[in-house]
């Protein structure tokens, strides 16, 4: 069974509720995954908006998620706990910052990317930009998946 990612908060390609948007409650959605490949020691998760006016915009990066974990509860992105660390997003914060497209810019797609890794510790410092965390993770990926939600202001 392949690695899959989903959320009880919204359907694949469905609208992300305002509670998960930056101008709402700014809570990261509950995320669940299954089909974890053998040999997985950790996960990395990022959230990207390819529809941003100036190109790809990264809203969240979480890494060193333990390999035995299969979900992140709603609001987890506000503060890392345990061994999980957060990358610096394009807002300059080391946390989840939800959708906030410019008003009147149309529907934006938010890609939640999850990768299973063959290392427990990605070996990057705290406050590393999300893009650099994903680049470091590529060398250790066993499998990756994505889940897309939409948002419009």
Explain what the structure shows.
The chain is mainly beta and 153 residues long. The chain has a domain of 100 residues: Phosphatidylethanolamine-binding Protein (Alpha-Beta Complex). 6% of the residues lie in helices and 34% in strands. The chain has a six-stranded mixed β-sheet with strand order 2-9-8-4-5-7, covered by helices on one side. A three-stranded antiparallel β-sheet has the order 1-3-6, with no helix packed on it. A hairpin with a 7-residue loop joins β4 and β5. It starts with a strand and ends with a strand.
Number of distinct beta strands: 9
Q: What is the CATH superfamily label of the domain at 40-65 and 80-153?
A: PEBP-like
- Report strand order across the widest sheet: 2-9-8-4-5-7
Fold-level CATH name of the domain at 40-65 and 80-153: Phosphatidylethanolamine-binding Protein
Order of helical and strand elements: EEEEEEEEHE
Give a short account of the largest sheet. 6 strands, mixed
Class derived from helix and strand content:
mainly beta
Please state the second-level CATH architecture of the domain at 40-65 and 80-153.
Alpha-Beta Complex
N/C terminus separation: 37 Å
Tell me the number of helical segments per DSSP (H or I, 4 or more residues long).
1
Query: Whole-number radius of gyration?
Result: 14 Å
CATH class of the domain at 40-65 and 80-153: Alpha Beta
What is the overall silhouette? globular
Helix content: under 10%
Mean pLDDT across all residues, rounded?
A: 96
Poorly predicted regions are none
Q: Quote the beta fraction.
A: 25-35%
Protein name: PEBP family protein
Pfam family, one: PBP
């Amino acid at each position: 069974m392949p690695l899959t990612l989903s959320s009880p908060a919204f359907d694949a390609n469905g609208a992300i509720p305002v509670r998960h948007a930056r101008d709402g409650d700014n809570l990261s959605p509950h995320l669940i995954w299954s089909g974890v490949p053998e040999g997985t020691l950790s996960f990395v998760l990022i959230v990207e908006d390819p529809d941003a006016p100036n190109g790809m915009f990264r809203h969240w990066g979480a890494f060193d998620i333990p390999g035995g974990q299969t979900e992140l509860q709603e609001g987890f992105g506000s503060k890392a706990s345990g061994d999980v660390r957060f990358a610096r997003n394009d807002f300059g914060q080391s946390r989840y910052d939800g959708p906030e497209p410019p008003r009147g810019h149309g529907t934006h797609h938010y890609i939640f990317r999850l990768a299973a890794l063959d290392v427990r510790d990605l070996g990057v410092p705290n406050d590393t930009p999300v893009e650099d965390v994903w680049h470091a993770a590529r060398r250790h990926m066993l499998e990756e998946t994505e889940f897309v939600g939409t948002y419009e202001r």
